[in-house]
Design a protein that fits this description.
Shape: globular
Number of strands: 19
Bound molecules: glutamine
Helix content: 40-55%
CATH topology of the largest domain: Creatine Kinase, Chain A, domain 2
Radius of gyration: 29 Å
CATH architecture of the largest domain: 2-Layer Sandwich
Oligomer: single chain
Structural class: alpha+beta
């Protein structure tokens, strides 16, 4: 056993569960211990500074120089008292991961004596090199400057590794010329646009509503694979997914993994992860086995959206770190293995007022029901009007593999509202009611009082990309590896835009003398009619739905390069511009960045396939083929009749032709790659990678998988799927 594959399997079999000592006390006693949150601010800041900071976070005050000095000193004292040696601005560039550059607090002064220093300047602003991050042409190497700027609405935290502790300050990331080069800046702007638009609409119902915040609960699905097996698969190592591999005879068909008992080593990882997350104030609450073998999920409580997204990004960081302690690798790719479930990052979105009302929770009285209906129907209308933007917001090379199969929604954006609310919408829409409603006193005649809905009052539809689940919408199409700021910025923006339009229409009716509730109802009714096409309760995987969706005028864009087109459509550019979320230059740059990331990912996968086929799989198969040839020759030499070794001969022929296929296809793919690389226009290049290069992937995979099933198992050089999925 001298190949990497068997060494890896042996290593896994000898692994012991690793118990990391849990922090002392109950989870509630160490929750948030590594975060400079409200309570610690109160302890470390003078009273007036503390109050001013709270006001600033609420948007009612600004952080001036003096306040920033106070805060930087408070954060420094706390961080150093807790063992931090370095600090960093922590930001989310358009790479999809987080970025950090550490500076020591330590600084020698002019007398040669060292002190620990952290100024307001260091807190507020830093200058990373913007040209080395994706920037869509906004920054050149010779004009590289960019800025990170402190986000006081997301608390600083200590990131702990075996090597020490670093103070992390969540920041936005901008170019020197002011354009956003990250996910957070547009997200914050979209949150504030939505706050303004939703608060304005709330005034129809309650004057005490002065703020509406978007809340988000993020379910994170992932796979775990043993570190040794992972390292023995160059495709997993370099692309995060398996590019070939015959599906294990037993996969997920017995449904025996979902919610099953959690394997011991995995449980030790989960407990460790939860403790680390809780220390960082991430309210992780749920853990379970997902549907596919070796697939799992964790989910925190919902939080204010900006914080929820920071926490999800941070969670991905600590998952990676904690997994290594347990000799696992976390796979957050949307489809690490073909033919079994992929991983999503379901985004549970809602709107909460400063008075504590969930605007997407149907109420008990007609008045609160009307408020619910207004927000519910406007969200549906927004998604109907901008379904292509929603599709674009979840588009990536990796999510393309997931959409449309194995419990992941298809690429057609539709909304599932459940039977009960469908009935309510139908009844509100009925023209009969419109005729009856003449006066406010008769307003509710014929319209049911929406019953108080329990969470399980709507069914679940795993094929729906955007499903109402009782008191929130669940954007299920979002992929597990994405920074969901991308989809949430779009959702916030389109709903904000829709609410603004709604208010204009309602105000117009009121100005003409229509009573307020009736005006609201009339516009709601109109929207229900207009947006009907987006509502779909059936099976999103069926051929009938594709046909029906086309009839309804819904788009069905299956791959990323074309799905992204909508970002540069005038309507989208103006939408983001008018809400102050992205200017034209930023929209265009983002489009380019996404296209670039798309084709580069396919390019890397194509190269990895080439390398593995040429240097690992073809040679291993040829070695076995030669043995077979020797065998056949020997049998012939000793004078056996041909019929007695015809199967071996067949095998020789099959293996030889499969080897020939994979070598030929790999070479043809290389030629297509060369052609694609010469295409100047980035959109055309991305399309060429999709349509000319990627098409070879499945073909090559198919032939490799055939080979894998007939080549001598002891010669197959890389771990098989049954080992990746089941050897623990
Ligand atoms: N149980 C589930 O909800 C499965 C969801 C599925 N893994 C997805 O890709 O979204």
């Amino acid at each position: 056993m001298n190949n990497l594959r068997f060494d890896a399997v042996e290593t896994v079999l000898s692994r012991q569960k690793i118990d990391i000592p849990a922090p002392k006390g109950k989870p509630s006693s160490f929750y948030g211990q590594n975060v400079f949150g409200i309570k610690k601010m109160k302890d470390y800041l003078p009273k007036y500074a503390y109050e001013k900071l709270l006001n600033a976070v609420e948007g009612a005050d600004v952080i001036d120089r003096e306040l920033a000095e106070h805060i930087s000193q408070a954060i420094k004292s706390w961080a150093i008292a807790n063992g931090a040696t370095h600090y960093t601005h922590w930001f989310q560039p358009l790479t999809g991961s987080t970025a950090e550059k550490h500076d020591a607090f330590f600084e020698p002064d002019s007398d040669g004596v060292a002190i620990e220093k952290f100024t307001a300047d260091a807190l507020i602003q830093q200058e990373p090199d913007a040209s080395s991050f994706p920037n869509g042409g906004i920054r050149n190497t010779f004009e590289a400057r960019g800025y990170t700027g402190w986000d006081p609405t997301s608390p600083a935290f200590l990131f702990e590794t075996a090597a020490g502790k670093t103070l992390c300050i969540p920041t936005v990331f901008l170019s020197y010329t002011g354009e956003a080069l990250d996910y957070k800046a547009p997200l914050l702007k979209s949150i504030s646009a939505l706050d303004k638009a939703a608060t304005d609409v709330c005034q129809y119902f309650s004057k005490s509503i002065t703020r509406v915040s978007a809340s988000l609960g993020i379910e994170q699905e992932y796979f775990l694979v043993d570190l040794s097996l992972f390292n023995a698969r160059p495709d997993l190592l370099l692309t995060g997914r398996t590019l070939f591999g015959h599906m294990s005879a037993k996969g997920q068909q017995l449904d025996d993994h979902y919610f099953g008992s959690i394997p011991e080593r995995v449980m030790a990882f989960m407990v460790d992860l939860e403790n680390e997350a809780l220390k960082l104030g991430i309210p992780l609450k749920t853990r379970h086995n997902e549907v596919a073998p070796s697939q799992f999920e964790c989910a925190p409580m919902y939080e204010e959206m900006n914080l929820a997204i920071d926490h999800n990004q941070l969670l991905l960081n600590i998952m990676e770190q904690v997994a290594l302690r347990h000799k696992f690798k976390v796979l957050i790719h949307e489809k690490p293995y073909a033919d079994i479930n992929g991983s999503g990052k379901h985004n549970n979105w809602s709107l909460i007022t400063n008075t504590g009302v969930n605007l997407l929770s149907p109420g008990k009285t007609p008045k609160t029901n009307l408020m619910f209906l207004a927000f519910f129907v406007n969200t549906i209308k927004a998604v109907y009007e901008h379904s292509e933007l929603m599709r674009a917001s979840i588009a990536s090379a990796s999510n393309d593999h997931r959409l449309g199969a194995n419990e992941a929604p298809p690429a057609i954006i539709s909304i599932f509202v459940g039977g009960q609310l469908s009935d309510v919408l139908d009844q509100v829409e009925t023209p009969r009611i419109a005729k009856i409603v003449k006066a406010e006193s008769m307003l509710w005649h014929g319209i049911p009082k929406i019953p108080e809905l329990n969470l399980d009052n709507t069914d679940r539809n795993r094929t729906s990309p955007f499903a109402f689940t009782g008191n929130k919408f669940e954007f299920r199409a979002v992929g597990s590896s994405s920074n969901c700021a991308s989809s949430m910025t779009v959702l916030n923006a389109i709903v904000a835009d829709q609410l603004i339009k709604f208010k204009i229409e309602v105000d117009k009716l009121i100005a003409k003398g229509t009573k307020k509730d009736l005006a609201l109802l009339n516009v709601i009714r109109k929207y229900i009619k207009q947006s009907k096409a987006i509502r779909f309760e059936g099976n999103g995987y069926s051929k009938e739905w594709e046909i029906e969706a086309e009839k309804r005028g819904l788009s069905n864009i299956k791959t990323t390069p074309k799905a992204l087109d909508i970002y540069t459509d005038e309507i989208s550019i103006k939408l983001f511009e008018s809400l102050g979320i992205l200017n034209r230059r930023e929209s265009i740059a983002r489009h380019e960045i996404l296209l670039e990331s798309y084709y580069k990912k396919i390019q890397i996968e194509a190269r990895v396939i080439g390398e593995i086929v040429n240097s690992m799989l073809a040679p291993a198969s040829i070695t076995y083929l030669n043995e077979l040839v020797e065998n056949v020759k020997g049998l012939k030499d000793i004078g056996l009749p041909k019929e007695s070794y015809s199967s071996q001969l067949n095998l020789v022929e099959r293996i030889s032709s499969l080897i020939n296929n994979i070598l030929e296809d790999t070479e043809a793919m290389r030629q297509e790659r060369k052609k694609a690389n010469n295409i100047e226009d980035i959109r055309e290049r991305a399309i060429a990678y999709d349509e000319k290069v990627k098409v070879y992937f499945d073909q090559i995979r198919y032939h490799i998988n055939k080979l894998e099933q007939i080549v001598d198992d002891s010669k197959w050089p890389v771990p098989k799927l049954r080992e990746l999925l089941f050897v623990k």
